[in-house]
Structures are given as C-alpha cells and as structure tokens.
Amino acid sequence: MSGILILEQALNGLQFGLMLFLLAAGLTLVFGIMDMINLAHGSLYMLGAFLAATFVSLTGSFALGVLLAVPATAALGMLLEMSLLRRLYARDHLSQVLATFALILVFNEAVRIVWGTDLPLAAPEALSGPVELFPGMLYSSYRLLIIAVGAAAAGLLYYLVAKTRIGMRVRAGASNREMALAMGADIPRLFTVVFGIAAGLCAVAGALLGPILAVQVGMGENILIVAFVVIVIGGIGSVRGALVGSLIVGMVDTIGRAFLPIAFGAFLPPQLASAAGPATASVLVYLLMAVILTLRPQGLFPARG
Amino acid sequence: MARLRPGAVVLGLVVAAALAFPFVMRAEGDAYYLSFASRILIYALAATSLNLVLGYGGMISFGHAAFVGTGAYVSSILLAEGVASAWIGWPAAIAASALAALAIGAVSLRTRGVYFIMITLAFAQMTYFLVNSMKAYGGDEGLTLPARARVGGGIDLDDAQTFYYVALAALAAALVALHRLAHSRFGRVIRAIRENETRAEAIGFPVYRYKLVCFVIAGAAAGLAGALLASHGKYVNPSVLHWTQSGSLMVMVIIGGVGSLWGGALGATALLGLEDLVANHRVAWVAALLPNYPQHAGLAVGLVLLAVVLFAPQGIAGLLARRPR
Amino acid sequence: MNKATVFCAAALAFAALPAAPARAADQVTVGFISTLSGPSAALGIDIRDAFMLAVKMNGGKLGGLRADVIVGDDQFKPDVGRQLAEKNVKLDKVDILTGFVFSNIMLASVPIAFENKVVYVSPNAAPSPLAGKQCNPWFFAASWPNDAYHEAAGQYATSQGYKAVYMLAPNYQAGKDSLAGFKRFYKGSIVGEVYTQLGQLDYSAELAQVRAAKPQAVYIFLPGGMGINFIKQFVAAGLSRDIQLITPGFSSDQDIIRAVGEPMLGIHDAAHWALDLDNAANRKFVAAFEKEYGRLPTVYASQGYDTALLIDAAVRDVKGKVEDREALRHALKAAKFDSVRGPFKFNRNQYPIQNYYLRVVAKDAQGRLVNRTAGTIFKDRGDAYVDECPMK
After folding, report:
1. Which of A9, B209, B294, C151 has the most CB atoms around it within 10 Å of its CB?
2. How many CB pairs under 8 A join B and C?
3. What is the reported pLDDT for C16?
4. Which residue of C has its CA nearest to B142?
C-alpha cells in the first residue's frame, strides 16, 4: 500500500467531501432556519448543472458558463421559494416531504421536456490533463480545481455567516426564529435570500461535478440522500457541522470504496469482492449516522442551544 | 379521520365490481388489464399497511419500501431455491418483514420528527445496498423466478384470474383487519398517541411499545404485499427497496386519504391508474400541446400530488366524505 | 352520496376501457425497447436509428408487410424494461421483440416474450448463459456473443507481448463474460481484476489503484457513458502516458470518439465490423446512415441495421404469415440475408459464427477520427458455450 495511493485516495475523498459540503450547507441552512425539509434540493443541483452545460455551450467558455449558471439558479430558487415553498413553512413535515417530493417529479420532467434527458459538459481544455504535485505523483488538474473552489466556497460561507450582518441574522434565525422576528429581522426576505444562497451553492456543485459524472435527469436524487445524512451527522442548522459531516462522509465513502474491495478480495472471488466493497462503504455511512443519532441525537455541532 | 359513509349500497357496488372485473376482462379478451388490476390490488395492500403507520399512527416512515422489499426477496429466494409452496414462502416473507420492522422500529422509534424520517430512510437504503450486493441472487440485475408460488388444492396461481382473486382476498382481509384494529382499544390508543404523544405518555400509556407494535404489524402486512408482488411479476429487483419506492407508497396514501380506511386502496388505484392513462391512452388535445407527453407521466403525478398537498390534504377519501351542503 | 356514486361509476367505466385498438392482419408489429435516455443513450439511439433506417429504405415494410415499430425507453432500468416488454407482449401483441442494449435489462425482460412464444432478436446483448446451458429457441443474437470481442482483444494482447494487464468491467453478467473472455486468450499476467458499479461515472478510486499496480496495459469493458468518463479521467490522471489502453470495439467507437476526441488516437480495439469493411451491403449502409443522420454509424448501428435485414428476410421467407411462430423461428435461423459484416450464419445455439478484426483509431481520408481495420484476429469463430446447449 504505497503512500502515493493513500494520498491520491485522500485527495479524492476531499474532493467528494467538499462538493457534498456545497449541497449540505444550503440544505442545513434551509432546514435550520425555515424548519423545512426540502427534498427538491437535489433538483436545484440538477438545474445548476443543466444551466451550466447550456451556458458553457453558448459562450464557449467553461468559467463563464459556470459563473452565469450560479446566479441563474439562485434566481430560479428564489422564485420557487416566493411562489410555492413559502406556503409550506407553516405546514407539518409530512406535507413538506410530499410537496417537495412532488417537485422532484415535476422538475425531472420539466428538465426532460426543455433539454432532453442529458447534456454534455466537458472540463475546460486547459484542465483535462494531470498536474505533477511532486515527482511520481500525478493528479487530475480538474479535480484540484474542484478542491480549490470547494475550499474557497467554504471559506466564503464562513465569512458570510460569521462576519457579516446577513450572517448574523441567519445565525439568529437558526438559533431562535421567534426571538429573531421579535428583534425586528425581516424574516420573509431573509428566507428568500437564504434559499437563493442555497440554490447558488447547489449550482456550483452541479456545474463542477458535471464533467466528472454526467449532466442527466435524476442526477440529484442519489446525492440528496447523502446530503441529508451529512446534515443529520453534522447538526441541523450548523454550517460548521455540514463541513465536518461532509468531510467525514466523503472520506469514509471514498476510502471504503477504494480499500474495502481489496480487503474483501482476500477471501472472496473478484466479482463478489467488487460488489461487497461499495455496498459496505455505503452501509458504513448510514451506520455512522445511526450511531450518531443514538449517541448524540442533535448531531455533532447543534445550532440550537 | 375522514371516513367514507356511502352506506352498504355503494360498498356492495364496489365489491360486486371488484368480483366481476375478471369476467369483464375475459369477455374482452384482455390479458394485460387483468394483470394490471392485480398489481393495483397488491400496491393497495402495501399502501394500506403504510397508512396504518402513517395515517393512524402518525409516524412518517420513509423506509416502508424496505419491508415490501424484504417480503419480496425472502419469498423470491425461497422460490429460486426450490421451495415452491406459498404456505411456506408467504408466512416466511411476513415473518421476515415483521422481524425487520421490529429491528428497524426498535432503533428508529427512539427518535422523533425529522430524525425519525431520516433514520427510517437510512435503514431502507442500507437494506437496498445490501440486497444490491447479493450477486448470488442477481444483484442489481434482479432475480427472475421460474413460476409463481404454489398454493395447492386446485388453486393455480399461474392463472391470471385466480391470482387476481387471491390478491383481492389479501386486500380484503387487510382492510377488515385495519377496520377492526382502528376501532379496538389499540386503535384508539394509537390515534391518541398520534394526536398528542406527550399527553398519552402523561396518561400512562407505554407509547414506545404501542408504536413499535403498530410498526411491526404494518411491516408484516407490507411483507405479504412484497411476496405477492414477487409472485405476480415472477421477478424481483433491488429497486423495489429504493427510497423513491417508499416515496411512491407515501404518495398513494396521501392521494387516497391519509388516515382513512380506503386511503391506501384509493391511492394505489389513482396513482397506478393515472400513470397507465398517461402512458398508454393517447389523448389528442394533450398531444397537441406536448407531443411526447406519454413519456412524461411523472409530470402528471407530481402536479396531482402538489395539488392534493396544497388544496386537498385529506385526499380522495376526504373529498368523498365531504357532504354537499 | 352523490360523489361516491359518481366515483364508483367512473371506476366501472375505467374497467370497461377498451384495450389496444384492433390490428390489421397485413402488418408485422415489432416491439423495440432500448436505452434511449441517460449517459448511455447513444447506444440505444444508434440501434434504433439504424433499424428504422432499414425499415425506411424498405418502404416502411419488413418482408413485404407494413411494419409497425413500437419504440419504448427502458431508461437503463431493468424493471422499466420488463414492464414495457409485458405491455408489448400482452397489450400491443407484438410479433417480434427487439432492441435491448444491456444484458441485465434484457435478461429481466425477455422471459415474458419467451413464455408467450414471441421471438426476441437481439441487436446487442448476447450473454453467455443463453449461449450455453440456458439456450432458448426463441432467442436470436444478431450481434456477437458477449465474450467474443474480449477473446479477440485477449488474443491481441498476447500477440503484442504485454506482460502485465489490469482489467476493469462493470459488475453484471456481460461484465463478467467480458473479463472471462479476455482471460481465455490472454496468456500473460493479470495484475488487477476489478468490477465497478454498473452506471458508475467517477473512477477516481479505481484509477488510483491502476496507478499503484503499474500495468503495461489496461483492458476495459465500459460501454456508453461509463467508457467516456473512464477514458477522459484516465487521460486526465496522466495514466495514458505510460499505459496502453486496449478496449473492445464499442468502447472506442464513434460515440466515444465524438465525446473524447483526439486522446483516442492510437487505441487498439477488436470488433466484428468496421466502417471500412469492403462489401456492397456495408457500403450502402454507411453511406445511407451518414446521409440520413449526419453522423458516422457505430457497431451498434450496424447491428440494428442487420437485425432489421434479418427480420425482413425471415418475414419474407414465411410469406408474411408471422402468426406461425415456429415457421418464423426456422426462417430466422436460416438467416438468408446480406449482412453488413460480410458472411453471417447462426450456430446451433442461435448465436453467430463470424470473423473478428483488429481495429485502430486513426484519421480517415477526410481527417475524421475513425476505426480502421488493421488485421483479422479470428475467422469463423462461434462461442465457447455452444457445447453446453442442448438445441440441435
């Protein structure tokens, strides 16, 4: 087991974890502040990817395409919030789950009608090759970009939440909504802004992951569940919790997927070892969540109290 | 709880229609819709079992597909291994699902609210991944079965009509059981827990135990639905355990009428009927607006669900129960 | 009370909904179910486009009868494919079923056709169980046995003297068949045998393992979107500098070339067909396909086209009496048609016996990236499982 292999897998885990963070951060803020379970979060991620693919092919520039997709998705997200999701804040969790589940169906079909089932999105030419981190260690330059952007987004979000006025209101709303309202915070506008930020973050993740995965209808569904697991582990309403949770889940999943098949391969034939590995890695993540829920039900960094 | 009160007349009409259906289909020479109707009956059973937990018990379980799937897989594995008798296979499926519900419920019911939703979802996903990795039983290619389960005594499940009646009998038994349960002391306690758990606890009811029993009963019924589903299609596939399947069952319950006796049956008919209508029966004016619309059945379902949640939260049963003033 | 009665009446009316419209006797109904959406949609779309092209070139007919082709999208999901197959067989009452790209979806869906005496002609998937012990008189493979390309590739790797090879395939029947086929003819050392998840798109973990294993060549079986992503990521990780990539024919075909581009140059692959195969049927096909669709056909397209020609010949041989299923079967088995791949005949397990060629990705006369034939690897090869099949 060489050091290079471990380093490379660690970087892979970091990359996955940071992208997961972009989704989880928005999800935890929406849930923490508006007390709303939003299953359609994955659909915003999908919309971001499709918009990015469209803008990239229109402008011919990857960077420009992504930069245009983010505010576009944020705008659509805010529109959705103002028109529809607002009615759900007062409703019970079951209604929220069902209404946003309905939105998943509607968005999937709407995207299929407008764009078709998938769009091509390629990484920029300049980043389609490797970078030599040190002699003997090559790593995909595009994945390094993802890590860089993810880290920058995390930093920006931290600055926004911890050091700005809006961030202060966000934290106040997450920690005690009634009091924040009593103190004069403009709640409806705050909610819309928070939702817009969440949608924008989803768009960044969708656009960046598009070239590695695929821009296709339904791409949000699998990653949505993992994002929920992350925010439960991290603590609902806490951005710091979302970061820690994402990195933990990202690492466990990647390391598991990478090394478990080898471990199983010691006593199982290749086909079975290859099947057992990823399955066990996924189960580990859920098991982790179940353990944390049992020991520390509020998550690692609870926002409230 | 919204309750259909059309009197014995309409109930009799419904039963008569259900009993006569296969003969109508045979007269038209149709094999497809008889099979489709059986599928509706099986999903009605699954949705009714979820309604017990969700509507009567107030527990938002997002992992119900795990129990349907457990029943489906246990009975399929037995059939694939040569145990053809339904008298072994189906009770085994019910027992396995009940056990799964006991295990999952025991852990999950210690949590509340969104955490309960998440943890039931997590367990369902774990089951999905585990089954998906079982290459010996097909993995994600699924498992094709040689024949349906054998009942014996002249009842041949491979005959579509016979299977329909067996599924109908299972659904009828479940509805009768649910009706009796709802009106029993157990049912009243469960509903009290749903309305205000703290108060029920304060009165002295062992809330956790009641909820767990409710959860297990629902899981067992879901297991039977799973076994029937596997025999019906002679095929089982891990997708039956996916969280989106749990979502579909919830959609059925909501559209049909959460907490109402007929909610599961109405919802299953409505959802599967709507999907079939959009996919297979071309309507000219809709095609003029959207040429490929049969491929977008999900849109119709999503919009109907949204409308129900926003404007008719009691579902079809709720609409039917409202007396004209 | 009123609403309940209305509802019950509606339910009864729904029960009385007419089934599918009656069909004319002088037509042949074909159910075509394939993967038409998702990252691997290009495969199903190619098969469908070529199939429909053949029908169109025949004046909308197959074997002299008007052809009603009912197209469905399995969305890469076995349960969806199965439901569509049930609908085709029971509701649309098709005479022939065809179309599936992926073996897992096909294996889940065709039993209902077999049970109802509906022939399935496969334009792609041809897994080993159906060639051997579970061979079925209602199944015809108009493509190539799942192992064949991989056997040819393994033979090529041996002949090139590669000492260490790392193999990857998705974890399903066809994946298993592919690596088994490669190992049957590759005599060097295998330093890795990894099964990825079907539909997996991110190969970062696997690529790190490949780098650590230091093979001379990597053999992959990753159809459609999986292959596109792998090759791109393989190049992005810098592995293409030191490691030769060998693939089965379809993993380096036009759809992948369109998506990946110049990095494909020099990849060697094995297939039963190439654009530049020199026979009249192929020249006509390639020209017509390019004219109709503005792109070059892949092997999948060639298979779809051949499937239509095969069905056309068989229907003509039974003089339009497609209801006589046994006669139709025998006509299909005789396979009297001009295939674009040259000589074609069925083995007794209804899998093809044909040639397999070495191809290399290079530029053609117009500077486009294509696969050019570079030699013959196998002549008149059947498959390794025919002896297990009890059919005559």
Report:
1. C151
2. 83
3. 46
4. C108
Interface of C with A in 104-123 (CB under 8 A): none
The DSSP symbol for B100 reads H
pTM of the predicted structure, to 2 decimals: 0.88
Structure tokens, A290: 């179940």
* Cβ neighbours for C322, distance < 8 A, ≥ 6 positions apart: C28, C65, C95, C96, C315, C328
Nearest to B129 among A105, A106, A282 (CB): A282
C-alpha–C-alpha distance, residues C35 and C102, integer Å: 8
Conformational region of residue A6, where left means phi above 0, alpha means psi within -120 to 50, and beta covers everything else:
alpha
Which residues in chain B touch residue C73, judged by CB atoms under 8 angstroms apart? Answer: 295
Cα angle at A303 between A300 and A305, to 5 degrees? Answer: 100
Residues β-bridged to residue C29:
C68
> Once rounded to an integer, what is the mean pLDDT over residues A201-216?
93
Q: If pLDDT is split at 50, 70 and 90, which confidence band does C353 have?
A: very high
A-contacting chains (≥3 CB pairs under 8 Å) = B, C
CB A41 within 8 A of CB A23: yes
Which residue, among C108, C9, C69, C147, has the nearest Cα to C304 in the 3D structure? C69
C-beta atoms of A102 and B306 within 8 A? yes
pLDDT band at A304 (very low <50, low <70, confident <90, very high): low
What average pLDDT does range C32-48 have in this prediction?
Answer: 91
**Strand pairing report for A137-140 and A130-134:** antiparallel
- What would the pLDDT profile of B161-173 be if each residue is shown by its tens digit? 999 999 999 999 9
Separation in Å, CA of C107 to nearest CA in chain B: 8
In this complex, which of B14, B24, B324 lies closest to C16 when CB atoms are compared? B24
pLDDT for residue C72 is more than 90 = yes
> Which of B107, B130, B298 is the closest to A105 by Cβ?
B298
Q: How far is CA A54 from its chain centroid? A: 21
Tokens of B104: 């999952």
| Token pair listed for C206 | 């696997």
By DSSP bridging, strand C217-220 and strand C164-170 are parallel
- Cα pseudo-dihedral C265, C270, C274, C279, rounded to 10: 140
When mean pLDDT is compared across A77-91, A253-267, B259-273, C357-371, the lowest value belongs to: A253-267
Nearest residue of C to residue B236, measured between CA atoms: C79
> Per-residue confidence at A23, pLDDT binned at 50, 70, 90?
very high
Is residue C348 helix, strand or coil?
A: coil
Tell me, yes or no, if C8 comes closer than 8 A to chain B by beta carbon: yes
Best B54, B104, B112, B129 member to test A by mutation, with max A CBs in 10 Å, is: B129
CA distance linking residue A259 with residue B163, whole number of Å = 47
CB B62 within 8 A of CB B243: yes
Mean pLDDT value across chain C = 89
Q: Which of C38, C205, C237 sits opposite A117 (nearest CB)?
A: C38
Q: Are the beta carbons of C253 and C295 closer than 8 angstroms? A: no
Q: Indicate yes or no: CB of C86 within 8 angstroms of CB of B35.
A: yes
Asked if residue C142 lies in contact with residue C123, where contact means CB atoms within 8 angstroms, the answer is yes
Mutation pick from C195, C196, C206 vs chain A, by most beta carbons of A within 10 Å, is C195
Distance CA C209, CA A202 (A): 30
Using one digit for the tens of pLDDT, what is the confidence trace for B255-275?
999 999 999 999 999 999 998
Query: Could you tell me the CA-to-CA distances from B106 to A154, B129, B151, C8 in Å, in that order?
Result: 38, 21, 34, 41
- Contact list in A for residue B292 (CB cut-off 8 A) is 113
Which of A104, A221, A276 lies closest to B133 in CB terms? A276
* Cβ of residue C77 closer than 8 Å to a chain B Cβ: yes
Which candidate in C2, C7, C94 is best for mutational testing of the B interface (most B CBs within 10 A)?
C7
Please give the ipTM for the structure prediction.
Answer: 0.87
Residue C86 half-sphere exposure toward CB, CA atoms < 13 A: 19
